[in-house]
């Protein structure tokens, strides 16, 4: 009996651990179509539509419409004020809508190792139709690209961290929210337009110590003029 009780205790702990912290995984496809360019002088814009297909790429999981007006402070720094409308479909229910206002700073840091290192910092104010609170979230992306032989194809990697600055009644939890890690290629399409194709890993922290990992085939088309 003295040997049996410790063995049972260990078994119960092992069974309880996965219940406290589980990782859900999904295969997804994200398509991003973005137009961008100057309006007049140093005034610039971008506009994008981004459908995301989830649940094993079986249907639209999320659709984002986002745009911004920016001002070039220099050839290396541009600041933006933008707005996004996000639709989250709900099976057999009413869609959840999210509205976001955001401020953004794009900064070309430098050209180390024969490539280009840049940063994007975005501060978001978020409202959702299934709650009353406004959520604040800070996002920071570091991006590096390096031409491979010719300038037609470049290796591309980036990482983006998300931090929720407060908790809300619609489910946001204050603290580290998610991490996105991308590896792939940037392909010249003609003029200044490019395509970015690769694998994106999205790790999302959830309430109760659980996590979600999305394995994403990501395609982004930038139409620059």
Molecular structure report:
With 225 residues, the chain is mostly beta strands. It has one domain (25-224): Porin (Beta Barrel). The protein is 8% helix and 69% strand. It contains one helix and eleven strands, in the order αβββββββββββ. The chain has one helix at residues 4-20; strands at 23-40, 43-54, 59-72, 77-88, 96-110, 116-128, 135-148, 150-164, 175-190, 193-205, 211-224. Strands 1-2-3-4-5-6-7-8-9-10-11 form an eleven-stranded mixed beta barrel. A hairpin with a 6-residue loop joins β6 and β7. The longest helix is centred in the first third of the chain and has 17 residues, at 4-20. The protein is globular. The termini are far apart. This is DUF2490 domain-containing protein. InterPro entries: DUF2490 (IPR019619). Pfam families: DUF2490.
In short:
Keywords: Signal. This protein is mostly beta strands and 225 residues long.
* Number of DSSP strand runs: 11
What sort of overall outline do the alpha carbons produce when their principal axes are compared? Answer: globular
Strand fraction equals: over 45%
Question: Which segments are poorly predicted (pLDDT under 50) over 5 or more consecutive residues?
Answer: 11-19
Mean pLDDT: 91
Count of DSSP-assigned helices: 1
Characterize the largest beta sheet: strand count, sense, and whether it forms a barrel.
11 strands, mixed, barrel
CATH class: Mainly Beta
Distance between the amino and carboxyl termini: 78 Å
Q: What percent of the residues sit in helical stretches (DSSP H or I)?
A: under 10%
Topology order in helix (H) and strand (E) letters:
HEEEEEEEEEEE
CATH-defined superfamily: monomeric porin ompg
Strand order of the largest sheet: 1-2-3-4-5-6-7-8-9-10-11
Number of domains: 1
Main structural class: mainly beta
Mind telling me which CATH architecture this is?
A: Beta Barrel
Could you say what the CATH topology is called?
A: Porin
Radius of gyration, CA atoms, in whole angstroms: 21 Å
Protein name: DUF2490 domain-containing protein
Keywords: Signal
Signal peptide: 1-21
């Amino acid at each position: 009996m003295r040997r049996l009780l410790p063995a049972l205790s260990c078994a119960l702990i092992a069974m309880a651990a996965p219940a406290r912290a589980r990782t859900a995984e999904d295969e997804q496809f994200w398509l991003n179509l973005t137009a961008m360019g100057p309006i007049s002088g140093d005034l610039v814009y971008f506009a994008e539509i981004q459908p995301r297909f989830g649940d094993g790429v079986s249907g639209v999981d999320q659709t984002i419409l986002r745009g911004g007006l920016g001002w070039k402070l220099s050839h290396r720094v541009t600041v933006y004020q933008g707005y996004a409308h996000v639709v989250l479909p709900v099976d057999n229910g009413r869609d959840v809508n999210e509205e976001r206002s955001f401020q953004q700073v794009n900064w070309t840091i430098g050209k180390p190792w024969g490539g280009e290192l840049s940063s994007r910092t975005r501060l978001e104010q978020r409202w959702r139709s299934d709650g009353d609170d406004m959520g604040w979230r800070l996002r920071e992306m570091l991006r590096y690209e390096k031409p491979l032989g010719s300038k037609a194809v470049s290796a591309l990697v980036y990482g983006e961290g998300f931090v929720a600055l407060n908790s809300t009644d619609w489910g946001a939890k204050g603290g580290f929210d998610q991490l996105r890690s991308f590896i792939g290629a940037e392909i010249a399409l003609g003029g200044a337009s490019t395509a970015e194709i690769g694998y994106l890993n999205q790790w999302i922290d959830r309430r109760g110590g659980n996590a979600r990992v999305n394995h994403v085939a990501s395609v982004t088309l930038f139409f620059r003029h």
